[in-house]
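Bench notes, bay 3.
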Amino acid sequence: MRRVILILLILMQLMFFINYIINDGIIFFNIYVWSVLGVISLVTGWRAVKAGPNLYENRRVHSGLSLTLFILSIASLLFILLIVFTRPYFLHI
């Protein structure tokens, strides 16, 4: 179950990056949701890195997914900060 949650959070983070690349004009609607999801993913990734895999879960798969989510959420939060400082008009609704 944890593997599914990690994969879904990774896919959601990637969808925000793809959404910004395809159409950056609508990002001001999603930047607040993206930042909340980034914080949730950061906490989940950190907890998954610290916790060991389940009994029937491969250690490499678990550590790969948890590190991927943790690094992707850090990159996502840094990218949001970059957007905030370079294009602050995206914060106005």
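Next record in the batch:
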Amino acid sequence: MHKVLPYSVLLLVTLGFYDTVYGQGGGIGSGGTDGRVNVINTAVPFLRISPDARSGAMGDAGIALSPDPNAVYWDLAKLPFAQTDGGASLTYTPWLTDIVNDVFLTYLSGYKQLDENQAIGASLRYIDYGNIQFTDMYGVDQGTFHPREFSFDGGYARKLSDNFSMGIALRYIYSNLAAGTNIGGVTFKPGQAVAGDVTAFYTNSIDYNNGQSGAWNFGLAITNVGTKISYSNSAQFKNFIPTNLGLGGSYTQQFDEYNKLTFDLDVNKLLVPTPDTGMVDANGNPAYLDQSVVSGIFHSFTDAPGGFKEEMQEINFALGMEYWYNDLFAIRAGYFNENKYKGDRKFFTLGLGLKYNVFGLNFSYLIPSGSGVQRNPLSNTLRFSLIVNFGKSNQD
């Protein structure tokens, strides 16, 4: 029974019952949030969960990291610069383990370089929410359901110069949270959407006079630009998916043959409308939900009720560090920060990496934070990734 409340709340938020949520808070309209929480809700938020253990150990930073098979998620444009001409990765993540024990995310990705300038990549992401017991408003059992979501994508990347590349990807999204169930007279169906990514990557190596070397990487990723999604034929509005703008930068210092240190920073902002319940449409729903996808993207930079200050609050930061010894053993650490009015996710991460021959094994751990009702529900999150590299580098 303890699963009913958390998952009911999760289901309501994911399905977009904004009037219920806002009604309890009195609404947030033009002129500012007045210190109130104003989280941007989207459907299929699993698309923004960091899927791999390497970046998971670095505070969820990964846009400008050196390329590996998980670049399909972070920045597809990195793949032509990968050190091997093919590879695959499999990640398993038990999710929300401080709350439940049967939710998990799996991620499978891979790529193949076509030649020294081109690469293709694909990935499959699947999240399973376990069994959920539905009850009506009086607590009467309405049966159980097994929600699950997945996405599949494929993309192409190409070098446009010796240092710069771009990539594009197309994604199919399927979300089955309560199909066939009836809640409040509404029969739900699976939600489906199609989205795309546009990414860019720049890298530049530096040789110093003391025998050391360094490398700067910069990445841009505009992801999940796609159709809205709904979960019933009678829905008065459709929900935005988590379109996102990500910028990343990293610097790697190669001290000698054995020691290498990388610092990585990601900055992210959702490109969807900010909640503003001060304006409603003819059906009584928040008017911002009626915007088109393109309109929502452009207005996302100027539509916050709290003005420029609130727009800046919508930017989150991820900072990571990675140390490699002899390309065999890695130690990683990171920090993620999100404004307290926009979700309040703040956590430190740690992780290890091992590499042997063509195999790599990565592990990450999200350090517990907070206590009682303030305890971070992501505390103790573990990620395990296995990487297999194929062939030799096209740059050799």
